[in-house]
Design brief:
single chain, Serine Threonine Protein Phosphatase 5, Tetratricopeptide repeat, 22 helices, 0% strand
């Protein structure tokens, strides 16, 4: 967009008549009118306006362009340049007024359309902005500023799927633009909310509706309400894959291991190949200090079917260490550590495995890493608590 705006000044050559004739799409009748209006006085006013711009005397430049328009009311480029001055000064009311007049004279000015569309957006008139922004983006599909403003307009008008398409295009060129990612996330969130509302409209007492309500409650760590919704889903169809998984996850997150085991076993009866359910069943057994042999059997089945599930490999390493098979545990733990090097527990288990193998140097190294990661996690929690405390103190 910056490049486009500066190119608008390029409409003015050494001679205003020549500049008008080079404007794209300017019919001969309009060109003839403009030619007749380009007098030495008009050319002098342009020179003075340009000089004022170069000296950052915006008010003077605006005055000169206004005088030019009075003398040459069919010079579309004059409207473009004057509108740009208002636009760059964030005077969107006057910018919109002047730029619209320019487009009425010559509709084929993408730069003018872009600035007018953005001006309308800034004035809260998205319905007027949208067609102008589309026109400008069609002329220059890689204009980042125009595309982002168009996306904001489309989001405001609830044209969310189209907005997401444009945002993905923009982020493909600007992958580090945090505002772009934020707007895309906001767009997807709105799409998600609209979809969830539609599900509720179709049947608020369906399995899907209750599962979604439960997931929303669980995302806010309100597991009691989540389990109420999951229970309703199970009662409606206890043999549907996924219903017991949701309930098992809720129990698993609040460390009710026995109840979690029951639900994961029920899920596996409905879906025997669910790797996550089988891993979490084994994990619940280990957390409840139940049979390591039984947990190991479940973990072996999990890894045979889903060898890249590193949580299961870490837990198999833990089960093997409990069974005194430290040498067997090491390969799984090393794979898990490579996948999740910032997970403290894995380093603690590695230290135990190395120590049992008579490798005190590696055991010490892993314990030091474990201590560091634990300390960093504790420090992060403490910092957050202090920040919350400071904010509350400032509010008093």
């Amino acid at each position: 967009m910056v490049g486009q705006r500066s190119s608008a000044l390029g409409f003015w050559g050494p001679c205003l008549i020549a500049a008008w004739l080079t404007l794209p799409g300017g019919p001969a009748s309009r060109a003839g009118q403009a030619n007749d209006e380009v007098t030495p006085e008009v050319q002098q006013l342009y020179a003075e306006a340009k000089a004022a711009q170069q000296q950052n005397q915006v008010a003077t430049a605006i005055e000169k362009y206004r005088e030019m328009i009075k003398l040459a009311p069919h010079l579309a480029a004059a409207y473009n340049n004057l509108g740009m001055l208002y636009f760059d000064s964030h005077d969107y009311v006057h910018a919109a007024e002047i730029l619209k007049d320019g487009l009425d004279i010559n509709p084929d000015m993408p730069t003018t359309a872009a600035m007018l569309g953005i001006s309308y957006f800034q004035l809260g008139e998205g319905n007027k902005a949208e067609p102008l922004l589309r026109t400008a983006l069609h002329a220059n599909p890689k204009d980042d500023q125009v595309e982002m403003v168009l996306c904001q307009v489309l989001v405001g008008e609830k044209k969310l799927i189209e907005a997401a398409t444009y945002l993905n295009s923009y982020l493909g060129r600007n992958p580090k633009d945090q505002k772009g990612w934020y707007l895309l996330g906001k767009t997807y969130l709105q799409l998600s909310e609209d979809s969830l509302k539609k599900i509720d409209e179709i049947d608020p007492n369906s399995v899907v509706a209750h599962e979604i309500s439960g997931e929303i409650d669980a995302s806010m760590h309100n597991y009691d309400l989540a389990m109420v919704e999951y229970k309703k889903a199970i009662d409606l169809d206890p043999h549907l894959p996924g219903t017991h998984m949701h309930m098992g996850d809720a129990y698993w997150n609040i460390a009710k291991w026995d109840s979690a085991e029951t639900e994961f076993k029920a899920e596996l009866a409905n879906d025997p190949y669910n790797c996550l359910a089988r891993w979490k069943l084994a994990n619940s057994m280990l957390e409840a200090n139940e049979s390591s042999e039984e947990a190991l059997s479940e973990l072996n089945k999990t890894i045979d079917r889903c060898p890249t599930l590193m949580q299961a490999r870490a837990d198999r390493g833990r089960a093997l260490i409990r069974l005194g098979r430290q040498a067997d545990a090491l390969p799984d733990l090393l794979l898990a550590e490579k996948d999740r090097p910032e997970e403290p527990t894995i380093h603690f288990l590695l230290a135990a495995a190395y120590r049992a193998q008579g490798n005190p140097a590696e055991a010490l190294k892993e314990m030091q890493t474990y201590s560091r990661l634990q300390r960093e996690a504790s420090d992060a929690v403490a910092r957050q608590a202090n920040e919350v405390k400071a904010i509350k103190s400032s509010e008093q």
